[in-house]
Amino acid sequence: MGHTGQDSTSLDKNKSPTNRGSDSTPMLGCTMFEITLSRGYGEAAFKEDMKKMYNQLGVANKPTVFLFTAAQVAEEGFLEMINNILMIGMIPALFSEDEKDQIVGQVRSAAVQAGYQVTKESVWQYFVNMCTDNLHVVLAMSPAGDILRTRCRNFPGLVNNTCIDWYFPWPEQALIAVANVFLAENPKIPEPYRKVIVAHVVYVHETVGDYTIDYLLKLRRKNYVTPKHYLDYIQTYLKLLDEMNHFIVAQSKEVKGAKSIGLDSSWLALAPILSLTNTDEIQDGGALSPDEPYGQFDQTKPTKRALLCGTEAFQLHPI
Question: Which CATH number does 2-160 carry?
Answer without folding.
Answer: 3.40.50.300
